[in-house]
């Protein structure tokens, strides 16, 4: 407690000083500006009457929120300071003083002035306080005027000294001012104060930066210009951010969870934009501009036999024909070492392929780090479950009444569930049934997953056969079987998973996690099976091609040996024979070979790219169709058929579709995985994905606003939560593997693509190293890639990981220890307090330092609207009806509070007792001789303790003269402090240090004056004294009757 | 839109940008929103210190779609208005949305959340059981009160606080 309040005080101290400082610094400006600034400032309110009020009021306003006892100390400190200051001032005659001292002096001077003004007033304290409170708004403007006046005379001193200030000091000051400017937006101040401080700091900078020596001056102007450019840039960028209003509308209707999907989508959109810019700039455009044009070489030409249908819509739809031989796919790119004026396209292609992954990794990791920084160390265990529910429950984004009602209901349900959970934490029945059900569910899910894998495998095999047939004879389904099947599985299987998840009887949140994990596995499995099947197909094709090639070579050799000049026609027939001999029964392949009289292989990289393209497009189509049918048509049906239906469609069976955030996010992740997997084989895939994401954005936002209702399930994977990002990271890693495998261990196609003719794609790097780098570097590289280096490096990495891991573990343990210690101290402290109070009161309640609380826990209490009954509780949620009844009846106390608040005597007072006192039910009440759980009679959000109804509260007025080093408390029955009748709460602190005051103390409470020993670790109560007063039934008895 | 530059001088905008988490465009947009609250009485130009002088009563501010469903709206406006009445000048208004903006760090949000929750009836009647739990969880020094430090301790660990204590304008 002690340390806390102290730290709070220190904080305030800093702020106060800070203001004084800058205020004075501001004084040192040229008078020309003073005129100007006063012009703007004083155009404000000049109606304030108390000219005497000066800056100190602002300061005091802050202080008001400080504990009373501390305040006293502080005042004394201040006085001492001032005295010191006087002495100092006399000393400081010589002109060689430093800037800092001057600052101090100025401050002191001003303080003195203020003091004088205060003294002039000599009004009773309370009045002053009231005055200061009431003239709060007007006073602000006044302050500044005073400030200016004050600074006028300070200024003269400074002007004379100005030239002799050493540059270092100026620099230091400038640095400080800059820090102020940079951090000003993070200060919890009023805008007026911020502006003032800012103005002052900037003027200081303007004035003194000119005096710096040239080099530093240039530097300053440069940094300033840089800052300006940066700001302009950020201004410009903020214009470019798309869909801001769209997301906002959705947010206000559905809350932040649904919006998190759209924000995630937008984030992915940015990533894809960057990726497509990469590929555009370094691969596609160079190839288009400087590479061989279309038709110049075989790999860039549609083969003759395909030409007649190259422009058919069916072929284009398949990304075949002209599209297949275009920059969209890997096969089109030439393997010329350099194109144009020395641009090495193959190298660029390889590097872009790598950097796609590197960039994605970097972005995701950065975002994750940012998120986890923002949410500090959000403990995963529900340590603060209730606090979070209450304090962070409300979603400030909600702007729609229906959603607001839903939210209120949701919070209520959440709280209710939490209470129930808390009560029956260790209740487990029917465990065997549940366990067996869960096992069954997992078996079913495994079967489903295996089935999907098998299906995909099957269709890819079938597609291999279809490819060998004449494309014109195939039906539409047969042509698109692979993508269709994959899309259907992705759409339908999650529904099964949901159904299966229903029988496991997990908590909804756990259930959701399970189903998410399953869908994720399904998606990954699909992609992987597809990839593996494709690779298998590729291998088959490559095998066939190799055989054909070998046959051709054998034939050529034979022809050469026989010294026969083979003519084309005979060569063709010979090849056909040779192929037949070797046992190729694939006549189509042999035909092609024969026709070309050369080697013609399928470009398998292009096939993979095409497959990915198709998959992506089909996925989009499937999304559109399902959205239309499952959401739009369903919504229409439910809406209009409801008039003539035998049950309520809207709330009953079909209902409106919900927006499944989790499913949709998973869909996005799956989609992105597809892009990553295919990007190397089809460089324009990211660009396609950009279009797709734009489409998705509009589709989803339309659908969500048109036909969805908010999701009921509790799932909070929002921006700060790294859950999505972890999934995305896993996806990225897994989709990187196939590409990596292809790069280092599969032979690229011989006659297409940038790497044709190489053994492995990776060779492009080693070739470049060999050619371009100096020999010594080559040997270094060669050495680096040997096992002698790699193995120790690997070991080192593992050791580092292990070390960090154990470090993490120890941190966790330390954290846990601290928590335990905290817990221990809490219980110990509790015991101490009880023992103490038991000793003092003979069974009375514990004491509580109420006003002690830094910033007064209820910071705004002193604002004193004084009407707890009118606090905005008007719109009580509909969901509240479902609250379990607790023994506490709110109506009585609340009504009573309303009456109390309305009492004339309490008008300006705010809360009579500002504390939400909690009380252990085990403590015995002196006044009642029984166990009265006080907590049943108070309302936490009023921050008020209500006295038990059996004792109608009566108040007595107590004259009280505070002693230095003491605190005032009302003790026994409830740990409440007496309230102060005549002034607002904000005056409590000051009152205590001045003359006698009157305090209202409710019956059953005793007023205790506690001597506080500040030196100790905790607060030790040394002595208490009881004061007495008369009950004033005539004045305050009225609300005593309210309750009875 | 045509005269949007006339609402503030360049230096005013610069200063606002220094003091808030907004860009120029956002500041002007907020000003438009502010003007829309009571366009009869708010002048188009704010270059002569009107920003700290002219107030819009709470009854108008309350009707903003961003606030109208918020159970804490009265309290929010009171906290941010200079005199605690809920009537706000443009400075206060801008201040408010700056704190609620996405870029605002957790610390400053926590400070204002503390002020807002300090004296509010939650829309859901919180019964004593919940209250007991809250104190059990958060009241570290066991004085039956939540100090700012304790509040901040709890809030800073909440995963959702930054997202939900946020108004997009």
UniProtKB/TrEMBL annotation, chain A:
Q: Which InterPro entries match?
A: TMC, TMC_dom
Q: Name one GO molecular function term.
A: mechanosensitive monoatomic ion channel activity
Which Pfam families does the record match to this protein?
A: TMC
Biased composition range(s): Basic residues: 69-122
Membrane spanning stretches: 267-289, 345-365, 439-460, 482-503, 674-699, 723-744, 780-804
Family, as annotated: Belongs to the TMC family.
What name does UniProt use for this protein? Transmembrane channel-like protein 1
Upper lineage: Eukaryota, Metazoa, Chordata, Cephalochordata, Leptocardii
* Record has Ligase as a keyword: no
The protein's location, in the record's own words, is:
Membrane
TrEMBL record, chain B:
Keyword field contains tRNA processing: no
* Chain ranges of the EF-hand domain: 68-103
Keyword Mitochondrion (UniProt): no
What are the recorded GO MF terms, alphabetically? calcium ion binding; magnesium ion binding
Provide the leader sequence positions: none
PROSITE patterns registered for this protein in UniProt: EF_HAND_2
Keyword tags? Calcium, Magnesium, Metal-binding, Repeat
A single BP term in Gene Ontology: calcium ion homeostasis
Designated name of the protein: Calcium and integrin-binding family member 3-like
